[in-house]
Amino acid sequence: MSLPDPVPSGPFLRLEGITKIYGEARALDGVTLDIAQGEMIAVIGRSGAGKSTLLTVINRLIDPDGGTMTCKGRDVLALRGRDLRDWRRRCAMVFQRFNLVARLPVLTNVMTGRLALRPLLPSLLGLFTDEDRAAAIEALVALDMGAQALKRADELSGGQQQRVAIARAMVQDPYIVLADEPVASLDPRNSEAVMDALARINRDHGITVLINLHSVALARAYCPRSVAMSAGRVVYDGPTEGLTPQVLERIYGTADPDAIEDAA
User: Fold this and answer.
1) In this protein, which residues make up the domain named ABC transporter (predicted)?
2) In this structure, what DSSP letter does residue 124 have?
3) Which residues of 211-230 are buried (b: 16+ CB within 10 A; e: fewer)?
4) What range does the domain containing 128 cover?
5) What pLDDT score was predicted for residue 98?
6) Residue 214 lies in a domain
7) Residue 179 and residue 98 in contact, taking contact as beta carbons nearer than 8 Å
8) Is residue 107 part of a domain?
9) How many helices (H) and strands (E) does the chain have?
10) pLDDT given for residue 122 in this prediction
11) Nearest alpha-carbon partner for 48 in 32, 27, 63
12) What pLDDT is attached to residue 216?
């Protein structure tokens, strides 16, 4: 079963009643969301609210214990084998810790995002085509990282490494980019560069971006829609401009920006 190509009308991705249980704890408790193609959504909330679990369930790195998830009407939770690998490729993950191979050149790190598009044997041997190299260079140039292509990954700053990770996600030909706290370990200047990169791929390519954020200020600056979570539940879903002090106090127990950063 092949996945449908996204189209502009209707929700692209629908989650209904998604639940994930660890022991006696409900990491996700009946999460229901409609996500349209081309949205850029901030997922906010206190530490342990379920934000990371939500993204890993969408990518199917872990499976939920209940609920349904559909992509243009297709049952994502029923995908197996090659179809599941294709889904994970189409829902590209960007992690806080970059997940780059430090000793390899930037270009090679980006090309690893193409492995899922290749037959098994070339993938296992790490063999790349001219098409792979061209796609990787194009992604790096689009993120102002073309000049760093031949450097080792560990020669770059944290912000540059994160942009390399985003370029790797881009060459996967994704429908969705799921960014799990991608700026949590970065200084304000590098955080802005990474957020600019995510906003650019959202704007220029129409790719849906879900991004877990500690900073409400960054959510306000970059994401028209915010989903706030608390104890595994969605407690706010709407325009980011609607995150009033009263709403923030309900989410974090405070409306003070510094206290919110600590809670997140």
Assistant:
1) 13-256
2) H
3) bbbbbbebbeebbebbbbbb
4) 11-48+59-263
5) 82
6) yes
7) no
8) yes
9) 10, 10
10) 57
11) 27
12) 93
Where residue 221 sits, what CATH number does that domain have? 3.40.50.300
Distance CA 46, CA 221 (A): 19
The reported pLDDT for the residue numbered 96 is: 84
Q: Does residue 242 fall inside a structural domain?
A: yes
Q: What is the DSSP string of 177-190?
A: EEEESTTTTS-HHH
pTM of the model as a whole: 0.88
H or E element at residue 70: strand 66-71
**Tokens found for residue 253:** 């127990």
Taking a C-beta distance cutoff of 8 angstroms, is the pair 55, 178 a contact? yes
Residue type, 144: D
Token code pair at residue 70: 């559909």
> Splitting the chain (264 residues) into consecutive groups of 10 residues, what average pLDDT does each group show?
44 94 94 96 95 96 96 93 92 89 93 78 68 94 94 94 94 94 91 94 94 94 96 96 92 74 66
Structure-token pair, residue 206:
């129409």
3-state secondary structure 146-174: HHHCCCEHHHCCHHHHHHHHHHHHHCCCC
Number of domains in the chain: 1
Instruction: Judge whether 159 and 186 are in contact, CB under 8 Å.
Output: yes
Task: Walk across the sheet containing 11-22 and list its strands.
Answer: 25-36, 11-22, 66-71, 74-75
Is 192 inside any structural domain? Answer: yes
Is 86 within 8 Å of 3 (Cβ atoms)? yes
